[in-house]
Amino acid sequence: MLDKPAANTQPVGTGAQSAPVLPVDIRVTGLSKTFGDVQIFKDISFGLSRGEAVAIVGANGTGKSTLLRCLMGLIPADGGTVDVLGTEVTSANAQALRAMRGQIGLVSQKHNLVPRLSVLSNVVQGLLGKHSGIRHWSQALAPAASRDAAMEALQRVGLAHLADRRADRLSGGQSQRVAIARALVGKPKILIADEPTASLDPSAGEDVMDLFFGLAKDEGVTVVFISHNITHALQYGDRILGLSGGKMPLDSRADKLSETDLRGLYD
Amino acid sequence: MTDLNTHVPSRIERPSAIAFLGYAAAVVIILWSFAGAGFSVEKVVTSPPRFADFIERAFPPNLEARTLERLGWKMVETLQIALAGAVLGVILSVPVALLAARNLVAGKWINQTVRTTLGFIRAVPDIAWALIFVVAVGLGPFAGMLAIMIDTVGFCGRFFADDMEGVDKGPAEALTATGARKLDVVACATVPAAMPAFVSTSLFALEKAVRSSTILGLVGAGGIGIELKVGFDLFDYPSAMTVILMIAVVVIGIEQLSGWARTKIIGEQR
Questions:
Q1: Which residues belong to the signal peptide in this entry (chain B) (predicted)?
Q2: Contact at CB, A101 and B176, closer than 8 angstroms
Q3: Of B192, B97, B196, whose CA–CA distance to A137 is shortest?
């Protein structure tokens, strides 16, 4: 198991003398989660500053996806607190949770597009957090401004020409690009990606990662991503959080780490 | 290579004593049911001559133009009862299924109450619903349509709910993560994902409705069933045979059409 590097445990802006003080978008304190009798993780704490790109790494079953779900309030935590963009997730009501989630974009391993709907409808639905109701159920009903925003998001991922194609007729790489467009269309402050390249071939995976982080950097958003690809974690993450044995033994700047350091988490 | 020292499972697993008793009990219950149903080998052996007598008296079927016209219009009415009842039933089944589906929009008490009610609706045969609606709204096709409608709600409400519970939860979670409300998530992710199953179930419901509507006339709820009853009551077997053949042709035709529509609509999904 790795030791937590003492000099790098502070989030950007809270410890370095020369760095500008940035707002903290996510603050996790003493977070614990169990499923039945199985303790997934216990007493995890960290903070993420605006604009940081943070990779969460660790072996299968260490609770990486569970941690992301706790951040978004999709599953309840058993202990500790989670503050996301000023919303106390663990105690927020449904309305506050929806408002918080409306500022987050999620990209999943399985893309999770609605298969029988068009690409444009899928992207328009990314605005449901900000505009609830029937007008955002489909591109056919959507206001012109929402259709324009969705087309712009598709343009940015290079798929505007496939706007009227059914989502289940896309390749894996195209499908993930649409998922990225859906996550970006609402102009989120935080982007969360759960193994975004796991179901793609290496070439498509590289393309998607380049696109995802290029767009995230353009927008200046905070990015939290899970990756089993150590090279991706070091290449795209400013900071690495490592989960192992129900703890977070690694919290370090990426440029201070080598692939060998991360491999220790998988032993 | 297989290690011969390891245990190789037997080809046929030996049942436990409890399982053996269960199989034996099942055989006894089946034989008991045959006895209760009055199964008689003697009657099976002696029935062919009587059956042949019926066939002889029923053939050729009555193909007079006036009879065919009268029965044809009755068959049209039968299909109208089936189509109107099935369409209304399918439409009503969607909100009912939303309430019956677990972990969707309603709490578990509502889920259970709606599911129990749907179970009750299914438990009552369509002919019994027709009798109830004849009392409620009078003789005629409207009573038949209501019977088909309620029967369809019992069938589709249950299966639509099961279909929605069984869809991939990924798209729903993705929309929940954008901050979408429950109703938005159901409308945008759950219902579209369940739509192929909805279409398939609805077409089965239509087939079932056509079959049911052909006999609702026996209790005065409209349709061609009354012509079958009159044919047998008056020993007009040629006309009764015409009705039977018309029902067979229409039901088989509807099944073929439904199968074709199912392939066209759902077969396109990859």
A1: none
A2: yes
A3: B192
